[in-house]
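Title: [Solved] Glutathione S-transferase 3D structure

Original question kept below for reference.
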Amino acid sequence: MKNIRIWLIPAGPNPWKVVFVLEELGIPYEITSIRFDDVKKKPYTDVNPNGRVPSIYDPNTDITLWESGAIIQYLIEQYDTNHKLTYTTLKEKHQLNQWLQFQMSGQGPYFGVSAWFNVLHPEKVPSAIERYNDQLKRVLGVLDGWLESRQWLVGDKMTYADMAFVPWNDRIDSVILCKPEDKFAGFPNVQAWHQRMISRPAWKRCMEVREPLMKEQGLNQETGRPSKYKTYQEYEEAVARGEDTGS
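Solution (posted by the thread starter after getting help):
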């Protein structure tokens, strides 16, 4: 099998959902790590006209795909032939898709906007911070309630639906600026569920791959921006001036 090529920005959470699946299924891959400055420029926009990561190219099928949810569903359909991370029964198959859609439409956007107003926005807007922190906790509440009597979102094993939530949940402390030990405060079922997944060798390999890519671009492990900029506004101004924002 030829390597699947994945384009990513190492700081972003969404690419690591895909890498987690690749690692768990043992699919060979190679990473093209791009800088935030270049994600909306050619040649990358020839791959993904939306200028977001991740994207993949699979030379085994000659398919280029972007949007992490679509990529995950493709990898599962094409390569999870033993159904390690999925189910084929009607009910479970659609319930998996349901939870993946909730991650894409609920967790990802709300956690992302919360990160923007807590960390990246140049001025503090208390009403926005409160609004999106509450939404982040609402999503956690949905998950925590569902996991009250079960270990996994669907069925009796970890699936791609569970895995899709890991990268954003892993960085809640850097989103809402709390202590790492407090990021799941009030949500013990989510904490236990998350711990089951990040303890897996596949997730640990993901983080081992990520660390040198972050260092290579001089990125702060917590904020994701180049370490030499104290604020995201400074970074954006440097990008607008056309400066080299590398380390």
